[in-house]
Automatic annotation (TrEMBL):
Keywords: Allosteric enzyme, Carbohydrate metabolism, Glycosyltransferase, Pyridoxal phosphate, Transferase. Belongs to the glycogen phosphorylase family. It catalyses: [(1->4)-alpha-D-glucosyl](n) + phosphate = [(1->4)-alpha-D-glucosyl](n-1) + alpha-D-glucose 1-phosphate. PROSITE patterns: PHOSPHORYLASE. It comes from Nocardioides marmoribigeumensis. Its cofactor is pyridoxal 5'-phosphate. This is glycogen phosphorylase. It is an enzyme of class 2 (transferase). Phosphorylase is an important allosteric enzyme in carbohydrate metabolism. Enzymes from different sources differ in their regulatory mechanisms and in their natural substrates. However, all known phosphorylases share catalytic and structural properties. It holds the Pfam family DUF3417. Its EC number is 2.4.1.1.
């Protein structure tokens, strides 16, 4: 029989156990083993049944058991200790509180997905996990961030396999009342709501859920409310589901509704308004339009001045080097959604369209590009690894065509991972055995100390722990394999073999990721016979654990999964290669620590950063990867293996042949021999040398704490300073907007009339000093409005300058008719072909980059 209505009855905790509610209601439990142990000790079976989710579990514990615990002095003492620890974590100063004056009072962090714990399935892959790790490390460091996202009624899909091995998708309904979140209410107890205008006079209304991520509140907007019609309710139905228009509605809700949710939340909780707005990928970019609207309506600013204020405090992180992965909308659709009835007086639709226009060579005049708008609405932008920064400066170069790649205003901060979430507790226990404290409290030892002790732990101990972790993974994989086969229609009797599938003593290689084509899930199948031989090697076998979801609309990706599954179904190899359906955080947590080697073979340079290999490294796993993303930056020859990538080879088949052959060779000749080379005690010393080196060299670098500190010091703090100088009475913003307007109008008349160099003779030597003199016409601009610079460096083919150095010239004399002479010197510091040129660029202390206006004048 079906219920006609369902609702969730929340448990009533006895007075003495009230702190349990607070512990369950703060997601810090998801990275704090003592809190998890406390919940597990209430009832081990229910803990497992609730999939280690305290909120769900509290709903299942019988009242009698709760009453018993309320009388149990030992339990109460443990509860008190864990609760006191949480209060201490939430209330006491941390890293950020020790920063000098001038740090931002608040930061808003927008993302379309957040992967925090399996108990809050609001993520699809790397972007969401990164956002979750960002919030967690911000919390550990005391950074005053507020997260903003959407609450999707179905989250992302759950993956299973059909009998024939095809991906199946399910979208179970998530009941918010069963999730570890609470709804935001006004002081009078009514639901807090935000609204966002839609075309044809419609208004989308959303309630706001709050998840507590340690010290960080995460606001999640949800349109599943009575006021909305069917279409509006469905805005938050699925993550990355639906067609173009649906996605546009989602992004309007996230960007515009998100800013409104922040305003409501800070009003109700008396928190300071954020000074910095950070958009994690372009999807939340409309937040800049909403801030411009606020400033025009509430402060009476004109669009241009409001734009300056808003962009000074906005940070944009771009995540994809795959052009097809950039978020774009038809221009007319954006015009329809932001114009007509829904137009805002201070934010004309033409201005909005101009912000997203691909108005550069090769751009498509019919589209509205969210990444391009992201760059125009934020004064500071970054990619997520050094290589990705470089690729992004190339990919978006059209926005600053006259500038050298190195000067385009896109920096990079390499991603990191939240160690307390991803490191097995046994690994941290090893550090404790060696006398260091890897806790995330400010009193804990530094990560350098924690990872340095890797050198002191006896090899035998490390090896014992790795075996425990490998075995745990093997058991988890068998359970998943059995479940999957039962779902595929097999009977238990046919599945005896599963109990001995995989082996806790065999070299274990992990490969799990989403399945877009550039990640090349099936590269390992390029030569099936060779793979089979590696799996079945009588002396040095390997075993492979594979997982990954294909986007529901990506049939190509589903075909790749099917290929892998069919290969792994073969009775000859099925005990050595397993595809585990439904890759998610719950699977990932035992997967990384249990693997000896983490494999990654993307098509370079399409992996912007990648983070799964970092999680493996923190657990003593060795990376075996194409030199892409973070691995390109931190591979040092001894902390794993680089699969040579055939970068220049155009034919993709041939490239795959070359790279897969290199992969097989590495496994056969380097990886497996080292793993199985045991000493008399059965310990592979040479392997462990690499493990130790990995922990020591990568440990401190791959941490999300390092990443968040980098964001604070190199982006959030400078953005705060910029925003404050413009915000003060908005005088700075008005001046800056007027100045930009004046400079843009005058610029076509700016000229370099003449350049002279002298002082180095015919045969200059290293150390010689060249004098440079330039005459320029400034077309009504003042010499204070510009910089005149010599660009010099080595010259390559067709006289292109490389390894540029920029040296300023000084104003020497001004003449009539706007002509000026500039003088300066350049020391020739290297031998070989040398060249120079001159340029005039706008100068203003409010600019964060010389390329910001895209204006430059070179000698004609
Ligand atoms: C870390 C992680 C990812 C991202 O891994 P990449 O290396 O960026 O592909 C995706 N899904 C889950 C569940 C993860 O834990």
């Amino acid at each position: 029989m079906r219920a006609i209505r369902r609702f969730t009855v929340r448990p009533v905790l006895p007075e003495a156990l009230l702190p349990l509610g607070e512990l369950a209601g703060n997601l810090r439990w998801s990275w704090h083993p003592p809190t998890q142990d406390l919940f597990a000790s209430i009832d081990q079976q229910l803990w497992t049944r609730s999939r280690q989710d305290p909120t769900r579990m509290l709903g299942l514990v019988p009242t009698a058991r709760l009453e018993e615990l309320a009388e149990d002095a030992d339990f109460r003492a443990r509860l008190e200790a864990v609760h006191a620890d949480l209060r201490d974590y939430l209330e006491n100063p941390r890293w950020f509180q020790g920063l000098p004056e001038g740090a931002p009072r608040g930061i808003a962090y927008f993302s379309p997905e957040f992967g925090i714990t399996a108990a809050l399935p609001q993520y699809s892959g790397g972007l969401g996990i990164l956002a979750g790790d960002h919030l967690k490390s911000a919390s550990d460091l005391g950074v005053p961030i507020i997260g903003v996202g959407l609450l999707y009624r179905h989250g992302y899909f759950k993956q299973s396999l059909s009998r024939e091995g095809w991906q199946q998708e399910r979208y179970p309904v998530l009941d918010p009342d069963e999730l570890p979140i609470s709804v935001l209410r006004e002081a009078d107890g009514s639901l807090a709501k935000v609204t966002v205008g839609m075309p044809e006079g419609q208004t989308a209304t959303a309630r706001v859920w709050v998840a507590n991520v340690g010290r960080v509140p995460l606001l999640l907007l949800d349109t599943d409310v009575e006021e909305n019609n069917e279409v509006l309710r469905d805005i938050t139905d699925r993550l990355y589901g639906g067609q173009t228009e649906h996605r546009l509605r989602q992004e309007m809700l996230l960007g515009i509704g998100g800013v409104r949710a922040i305003r409501t939340f800070t009003r109700l909780t008396d928190r300071p308004a954020p000074e910095v707005f950070h958009t994690n990928e372009g999807h939340a970019g409309f937040l800049g339009l909403e801030r411009i609207r606020e400033l025009t309506e509430e402060q009476g600013l004109e669009f241009d001045a409001a734009l300056e204020v808003s962009r000074a405090g906005t940070v944009f992180t771009t995540h994809t080097p795959v052009p097809a992965g950039i978020d774009r909308f038809p221009r007319e659709l954006v015009a329809q959604y932001f114009g007509g009835d829904n137009a805002q007086p201070g934010v004309p639709v033409e201005r909005i369209l101009a912000l997203g226009a691909e108005s550069y060579e090769g751009g498509d005049p019919g589209v509205f590009n969210m990444a391009v708008m992201g760059f125009r609405l934020s004064q500071r932008a970054n990619g997520v690894s050094q290589l990705h920064g470089h690729v992004s400066r190339g990919m978006f170069g059209g926005l600053w065509p006259a500038f050298d790649e190195s000067e385009r205003p896109i920096g990079s901060i390499t991603n990191g991972v939240h160690a307390p979430t991803w490191v097995a507790r046994e690994i941290f226990d090893l550090a404790r055995e060696m006398g260091v404290d890897p806790d995330s409290s400010p009193q804990a030892d530094s990560p350098e100390r924690v990872f340095e002790v890797a050198d002191q732990v006896p090899g035998k101990r490390v090896w014992e722990i790795k075996r425990i972790l490998r075995e745990r993974l093997v058991l988890d994989a068998r359970r998943r394999l059995k479940e999957s086969w039962l779902e595929r229609g097999a009977s238990s009797a046919e599945l005896k073999w599963v109990d001995s599938a995989l082996d806790p003593d065999v070299l274990t290689i992990g490969f799990a990721r989403r399945v877009p084509s550039y990640k090349r899930l099936t590269l390992m199948l390029r030569d099936p016979a060779r793979l089979k031989a590696l799996l079945l090697d009588p002396e040095r076998p390997i075993q492979l654990l594979i997982a990954g979801k294909a986007h529901p609309a990506d049939d190509g990706g589903k075909r790749l999964i099917n290929e892998i599954v069919r290969f792994a179904d073969d009775p000859e190899v099925r005990h050595r290669i397993v595809f585990m359906p439904n890759y998610d955080i719950a699977m990932a947590q035992p997967l990384y620590p249990g693997c000896d080697v983490w494999l990654n073979n993307p098509l370079r340079p399409y992996e912007a950063c990648g983070t799964s290999g970092m999680k493996a490294a923190l657990n003593g796993g060795l990376n075996l990867s194409i030199l892409d993303g973070w691995w390109d930056e931190w591979y040092d020859g001894n902390n794993g293996w680089a699969i040579p990538s055939a970068d220049g080879v155009e034919d993709p088949d041939r490239r795959d042949d070359l790279e897969s052959a290199a992969l097989y060779d590495l496994i056969e000749n380097d990886v497996a021999p080292r793993f199985y080379d045991h000493d008399a005690d059965g310990v592979p010393q040479r392997w462990l040398e690499m493990v130790r080196h990995t922990l020591r060299s990568l440990g401190p670098k791959v941490l999300a704490d390092r990443m968040v500190r980098d964001y604070v010091t190199t982006l959030y703090q400078p953005a705060t300073e910029s925003a404050r100088t413009l915000n003060d009475d908005y005088k700075g913003a008005l001046e800056l907007a007027a100045w930009k307007d004046r400079v843009r109008k005058a610029w076509p008349g700016v000229r370099v009339d003449h350049v002279d160099s002298s002082g180095i003779g015919d045969a200059p030597e290293v150390g010689a000093v060249m004098k440079v003199q330039a005459f320029v016409t400034l077309a009504g601009l003042s010499p204070d409005d510009v910089d005149v610079q010599v660009l010099h460096g080595r010259v390559g083919e067709s006289d292109t300058l490389r390894d540029l150095t920029v040296s300023p010239l000084q104003l020497a004399e001004s003449y009539e008719a706007d002509r000026h002479r500039y003088d300066g010197e350049v020391r020739l510091s290297t031998s070989g072909a040398f060249g120079y040129t001159l340029r005039v660029v706008p100068r203003n202390s409010h600019l964060a980059s010389v390329a910001e206006l895209g204006l430059v004048t070179l000698p004609s």
